[in-house]
Structure formats: structure tokens, C-alpha cells
Amino acid sequence: MKFKRNERIGGIVKILSDSPNRIFTLSYFTQKFNAAKSTISEDILIVKNVFEKLKLGKVITIAGAAGGVKYIPKVSSEDAREFLSELCEQINDPERVLPGKFLYLIDIIYSPQVVSKVGKLFATYIDYSSADCVVTIETKGIPLALATANAMNLPLVIIRKNSKISEGSSLSINYVSASNEKIQTMSLSRKSLKEGSKVIIIDDFMRGGGTLKGMQDLMSEFKAEVVGKGVLISTNAPEKKLIEDCISLMKLVRIDAGEVKTIPNDEIIK
Amino acid sequence: MKFKRNERIGGIVKILSDSPNRIFTLSYFTQKFNAAKSTISEDILIVKNVFEKLKLGKVITIAGAAGGVKYIPKVSSEDAREFLSELCEQINDPERVLPGKFLYLIDIIYSPQVVSKVGKLFATYIDYSSADCVVTIETKGIPLALATANAMNLPLVIIRKNSKISEGSSLSINYVSASNEKIQTMSLSRKSLKEGSKVIIIDDFMRGGGTLKGMQDLMSEFKAEVVGKGVLISTNAPEKKLIEDCISLMKLVRIDAGEVKTIPNDEIIK
After folding, report:
1. How far is A161 from chain B (nearest CA, A)?
2. Helix residue ranges, H only, A19-96
3. Distance of CA A182 to CAs A176, A218, B31, B150, Å?
4. Which residues of A touch B11 (CB under 8 A)?
5. Is B13's CB within 8 Å of A18's CB?
6. Inter-chain residue contact B14 with A13, CB threshold 8 Å
7. Of A1, A9, A149, the CB nearest to B9
8. CA distance B69 to B22
């Protein structure tokens, strides 16, 4: 089958954007579109231009034997600011405040459209160039972490709150969650993370940082190195968290019965 | 800014494929690309052709005031067969058999690349035209369900194994999981599902169907109607499941210490 330039461009965009950060060789495209290498190279130049002009991220060429072309999702700062401002507006609804000053967020953090954008934001602000996988803890962080893993083209690892028979032998630690001051257990299947891995930790919400600290400690048990940490929302209080260098996309400034205020974290939007 | 036809085609493909099943108006594109309606209409015809020729799904035009154009993910039967056969090959590794005849699957069912394809497969084989949301139960089904919700452009609802303080008041039921014959609880936040909703249930694995039956019962408590059910793998034994009309993409034919055999479910690949 023969393809016109227009059709090839459309096809290449679809293939690249469906698999962020995956390298496709020139030969892959020459075979798929039954076209010469020089033709495909020209197509790719046009594709690069499309992504740049529309601020959809970057398409880069990697030279050498294992070379090819890949798409790197990047969100522009205007786009990030607009998206996060809208999200804050949606969250700043007093009806979302639950007894105990908890914030009802699951409609937002389970929304496929929201999480896919958040995944691209984490991929924009966290350096994952050396990372081997994205790690989260069940349950509410999972959709965000999956979208992040997808944007970064990394496998996802999910820490369980109890060890599970269907995951084989596992390693457990105890930690104190600041939000309820209870000692809890988290555990991870031995098979699911190689020793010496470099990991990115993602979660939905950080108050004191107890859960993230627990995840970090569990990673040490696996001799894994945490090379990046991100949460969707962190609270302003307490100012001192149990962990450092965690990127948060939004700040929870205030929460009380009948009042909640979150703002985009301007420090990281660049 | 002005765009060439090539660039507009690339841009339209990116926008449509990033948001499956979402309607974009012609005006959205005329503004984005600073082009006339007639020009965009021609572009869209070419885009339709690209998707068709490359078997990437369908792009359809919706007439009327709320009209526009949308992308419907569809997987061709060759593509489905090839993908599922490769997945079975990966799964049919004796090292995956855990004590108690459990199957180690989390590397596969948490892989962003695998789940995004599985989501498109469920969107190909399950009729979701009347559905309001995708429902799953924590934890292992979540990535598959999120990818399905994304392909169907529906919100995701996650049933918890215990009720959570950060989700507000909830409704719980007890159910018997066939895999360990224990009575367990599942619960769902009242806010997260409207009465009378039509839902698609997605899970990773079905043996006796106890968990899916539980989810179905919980849906009745919400006066919700289950309009579709899908699991990645169902076992051949027991032949009689506690629920009916559940689509499974793969069949587990045999599992024993040192032996496991799964096959693509040819009945549904069409």
C-alpha cells in the first residue's frame, strides 16, 4: 500500500504520540509506509515542526545503531498554569470538605483526562532520564502514577498496604502516616523491583510526608535509589515535611469546614 | 500563526488521538489553526483516511449543533490476535506460577504499554454507547480499568475493600471471593456514583466470578445498571461462573506447579 505525505505525517504523529519516549527506527517507518528513508526523514522534520509549533512536546532524533526518533511529552508553562488554575477552581468547592478536614478528590484524581495531563506535567518537571520505574502506593495514587509511567515510558510498581499471596514473597516495613497517626504496614513483592533500581515516587497528596518517607525507606530496603518525587497536592502546614525535594503541582493553603483553598504551585511552573 | 496542510493534519491527529471519544467542533480547529471551515473539513477527510488505512480506529463526524468530529479507538482482529498471542507467550512461563497456583501477573497488568492496548481492546469488544462510567475494585484491576475508561472517555470509579474516611459516607456489602473462600467487604463512596448510572465493570482476573458478582450486587445497591463486563483473563475451570456475559480477552486453560497455559479467547476476537 502507498501513502501520501499527508497520510504518512498523520500516521507518524499517531504512532509517536501513542508511545511517548519510545524509540522508533527509521526502518520501522519505511516498512510501515513502504517509502524511502529520505522520504521518511523529510516527514519527520515536518512532524518535529508540528509538535514545536503546537507546543505538544518535543520530537527528537537519536543517532547511532540504536537510534531513531522519539516523542517527549512536555507541557508549556502557559498550558500548565491554565490547567492547574482550572483544577484548583474545581477543588476549591466547600462541599468537598469532609468531616476531619479531609478533601474529597477521587472524582478528580480518577478522571482519565485529568490524570493524563498530570502525568505529562510530572514528566515535564521531574528529571527521569536515569529512572528505571515509577513507584506508588495503593490506592488513590495509582491512576496518577500510571499516567506518569506512561508519559515517561517506564514500568509501574505498586506498593501494597498488605502483602498479597498472588504477588509472591514480599518485603514489608512499618510507617507512621501523619494524617491519622497510626502505625501502618506497606509491602512490596520482591519480584517487582530489581536491586539497585532508580525510581520516581508519585502520590496524590502529601501532608506530613509520612507515607512518602515510608516509601523512601522501603526503597532503601530494595537498595533502590529515589531519583525524583512528585505529588499532586501538598499542604502548606506543617511547613516541615518528613522528606525533601518533593515536587508538588498544587498547594493546599487552607482547609476548614465550609472553606478550602488550593493554588497552583508557581515555584515549579517554568 | 499559519499552518501548512501537513502540519494541520499532524495537529488534528495528535489532538483527536490524545482524547478518544471526545467531540471536537470544527470551530475548535478553525481557531487553533487559523483556517477556514472548508479547509479544516478537507483536512478531516484526510485524517479519516489515515486512521482507516493504518487500522488505527475510526474518526467519525457528528452532525448537528453539538456536532463535530471524534476518534473511536478500535483494534483490528489481526492486531488483537497478534497482541494477545504475544501476551500469552509472556504469561506461559512456569516461573510465574506461585505457591497456591496463583499466577504472577503484576509486571504485565501494571505495564503502561500493555494496559493501554487492553483498554482499546475492551473499547472494541464491549458496547459502551450508553455507559456513564467504568467501575473496578482495588487494586490490580485499576490500571486496566483506567486505560479502558480513557479509551471510552468515561470517568473511572474504584470500589475499595474498606470504606475510607477521605471519601465521605459509603455503602458496603459483603461477598465471598472464590479464590480464597473468605467473606470480604467492598465499599463505595456514595458521592462517587449517581443512582441510575449505567456502568461497565472491568477486572484483571476471574476464577469463580465471586468478586465480579459482588461488584454487580453493589451496583444494584446504587440502583446502577451493569451494561458491560470485561476481564483480562478468565479460567476455564470452574466452567460455571457466578456471573454471565462477561467478556474475557484470554483463557487460562491450565495451571500447576511448573506449568501454565493461557490462550487468546478466539470467541471474542472478530
Report:
1. 10
2. 26-33, 37-53, 77-91
3. 6, 18, 54, 35
4. 50, 54, 56
5. no
6. yes
7. A9
8. 8
Q: Which three cell numbers stand for residue B245?
A: 456475559
pLDDT digits (tens, 9 = 90+) for B218-266: 999 999 999 999 999 999 999 999 999 999 999 999 999 999 999 999 9
Percent of chain A with pLDDT over 70: 99
pLDDT grade for A124, boundaries at 50, 70 and 90 = very high
Residue A29, pLDDT above cutoff 80: yes
What per-residue confidence (pLDDT) applies to B177? 78
All cell numbers assigned to B263:
490462550
Residue A79's Cβ-side half-sphere holds a number of Cα atoms within 13 Å equal to: 13
Could you give the ipTM of this predicted complex? 0.95
Contact B106 A54 (CB under 8 A): no
Could you please report the per-residue DSSP string of B29-81? HHHHHT--HHHHHHHHHHHHHHHHHTT--EEEEE-STT-EEEEE----HHHHH
Measured between CA atoms, how close is B15 to chain A, in angstroms? Answer: 9
Q: Write down the pLDDT at residue A181.
A: 73
pLDDT at B180 over 90: no
Q: What is the pLDDT of residue B179?
A: 66
Chain B residue with CA closest to A153: the answer is B112
The domain ranges of chain B are 5-72, 77-264
Q: What is the pLDDT of residues A30-58, one digit of tens each?
A: 999 999 999 999 999 999 999 999 998 99
Task: Enter the C-alpha cell of residue B194.
Answer: 449517581
Residue labelled with grid coordinates 484548583: A88
What CATH architecture is B77-264?
3-Layer(aba) Sandwich (3.40)
All cell numbers assigned to A188: 512490596
Do domains A5-72 and A77-264 share one topology? The answer is no
- Residue B64 has what pLDDT? 85
Tell me the Cα Rg of chain B.
21
Residue A49 C-alpha cell reads as 515542526
SS (H, E, C) B215-262: HHHHHHHCCCEEEEEEEEEEECCCCCCCCCCEEEEEEEEEEECCEEEE
Q: What is the pLDDT of residues A142-195, one digit of tens each?
A: 999 999 999 999 999 999 998 787 888 999 999 987 666 788 999 999 999 999
**8 A C-beta contact, residue A86 and residue A191:** no
Chain A, chain B: beta-carbon pairs less than 8 Å apart: 174
Taking the CA of residue A66 and the nearest CA in chain B, the distance in Å comes to: 20
Q: Is the pLDDT of residue B16 over 70?
A: yes
**Contact assignment for B106 to A165 by CB distance below 8 Å:** no
CATH 1.10.10.10 holds for B5-72:
yes
A contacts of B32 (beta carbons < 8 Å): 54
Give which of A34, A97, A144, A158 to mutate to test B binding, by max B Cβ within 10 Å.
A158
The C-alpha cell that represents A17 in the structure block: 504520540
Contact A6 B5 (CB under 8 A): yes
